[in-house]
Design a protein that fits this description.
With 279 residues, this protein is of the alpha/beta class. 44% of the residues lie in helices and 17% in strands. The chain has one domain: Glycoside hydrolase/deacetylase (TIM Barrel, Alpha-Beta Barrel), CATH 3.20.20.370. The structure holds zinc ion. Keywords: Signal.
Length: 279
């Protein structure tokens, strides 16, 4: 039986509660549990190698974040640094700001206020529509912070498109829609290459939406590993064009441990997912 690789999905780590937000206390408890129980957080390259047939290590997990919120720097980065863990962050590459690195938790300095999910997404959209970087600045990361996290080894960065646009909802004509998505993905890859000096073959779909045309466009743009919001556990034989993830809830270590035990064990993961699939 294939050894599973749970792919965890986080968005916000913040004291402002919300549906896709985990509190700093619970996030720290999750990461502490992983570290104390000998789990290894893979890099995207290690994960890709497993999907290509490399042996899957025991207790291997891929920690992912979507969007690129300021709170990832303020609250998640110091916790990952504390426990020597590593996460993959899918950036909306057009929404990352300029300026100096801001304070993060644990430095004994006041930290910036971070908006909740609704506030952050509204700021991102307003910025995109107005092309005015000012309102965006309090919600999303700056490139200086992206560099600091990369240099610390807490995060690596991949694509969540350049504009987080659902082209399937905005353009009816198939060819025009494919071109818009293709341009969006090309802009994202070019931005990652210019800012970080590396291309990326890892793409996460905005709002989890994709179809066969989306997959074709992404693969033509050079993205081989496509991350979904479909529930499930990756294994060595998982299709890289359809990587399932596990939503991490704002719950304490006991809940997190039960999920990891369930999904981390080949037998119970297969049973559980088989049951879910039959619904
Ligand atoms: Zn997103």
């Amino acid at each position: 039986m294939q050894r599973p690789i749970p792919v965890l999905m986080y968005h916000h780590v913040s004291p402002k509660p919300g549906l896709v937000t985990v509190s700093p206390e619970n996030f720290r408890a999750h990461m502490a549990w992983l570290a104390e129980h000998g789990w290894r957080s893979l890099t995207a390259a290690e994960f890709a190698a497993c999907l290509a047939g490399a042996p899957v290590p025991k207790r291997a997990v891929l920690i992912t974040f979507d969007d690129g919120y300021l709170d990832n720097w303020v609250y998640a980065h110091p916790v990952l640094a504390e426990f020597g863990l590593h996460a993959v962050l899918f950036l909306i590459t057009g929404w990352i700001g300029e300026g100096e690195v801001r304070a993060h938790a644990g430095q004994g300095q006041p930290v910036p206020d971070v908006p909740d999910h609704k506030g952050a997404m509204a700021a991102g959209r307003a910025w995109q529509d107005a092309a005015d970087p000012v309102p965006l600045d309090g919600a999303f990361l700056r490139w200086s912070e992206v560099h600091a996290m990369r240099d610390a080894g807490t995060f690596e960065f991949h694509s969540h498109t350049h504009s987080h646009t659902r082209w399937d909802k905005t353009i009816a004509d198939q060819d025009a829609r494919d071109r818009a998505l293709s341009d969006d993905l090309a802009a994202s890859r070019a931005t990652l290459a210019a800012r970080l000096g590396n291309g990326s073959a890892h793409l996460c779909w905005p709002q989890g939406y994709y179809d066969a045309a989306y997959q074709r466009v992404a693969q033509a743009a050079g993205f081989r590993h496509l991350y979904t919001t479909e529930a499930g556990v990756a294994r060595g034989d998982t299709d890289p064009a359809r990587i399932p993830r596990i939503v991490v809830k704002d719950k304490p270590a006991g809940w997190f441990a039960s999920r990891l035990r369930l999904y981390g064990n080949p037998l119970t993961a297969a049973l559980y997912l088989g049951l879910k699939g039959r619904k």
